[in-house]
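Why does residue order matter? Because the sequence determines the fold. Keep that principle in mind as you read this record.
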Amino acid sequence: MGNPIDPIFSDRRAFADFFTSYYTFWEPESCFVAVAGGEVIGYLTGCLRHQLQPWAQGAIFLGKIVPRVAYNLLRGRYDDRSRDFIRWTVRRAFFETPQKPRGSAHFHINLLPEWRNGTASRRLVFTFLDAAKRRGARRIYGQIQTFEDRRHPCVFERYGFQFFDRRRISKFAPVVKTAVYVSTYVKELAE
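Structure:
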């Protein structure tokens, strides 16, 4: 949700590797960084090779993330919350992830809180959408974490995305007292 993961999982490196390694290694041409005043304020990582991504992500997970996390678990380097997060990942993550449209490109975007005013996200999203369209993508989806009372998913709707699926997610329960959802939005790219 744009904030440090530390209150939920203390291994920032493993967490970052899980969420970015595929994109930076296999599709760096689909990664975009937003900079303002010489400082990084956000990024967008995209995936256009949707047939390759699950296999490559699985290899990264099993070959890089699992050994690191297992080693740290065995060495007693994780606190209770981190161990809870690992249990959640193994037992519940799959079931709490909303459906996504098959055969679709996708992206992940994250901006510093003070830059979530729409301008930076719009530039990142439309830069990626233009690049994806040039490279032959027909459909793109994104997922956003939302709450009952704030962070409305209208940002995706403003960009021409349609609602696809939503699931309540429990991984943030230790630090967020309101219900958190992950919603999938999809956009058909015009010919």
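The radius of gyration is 17 Å.
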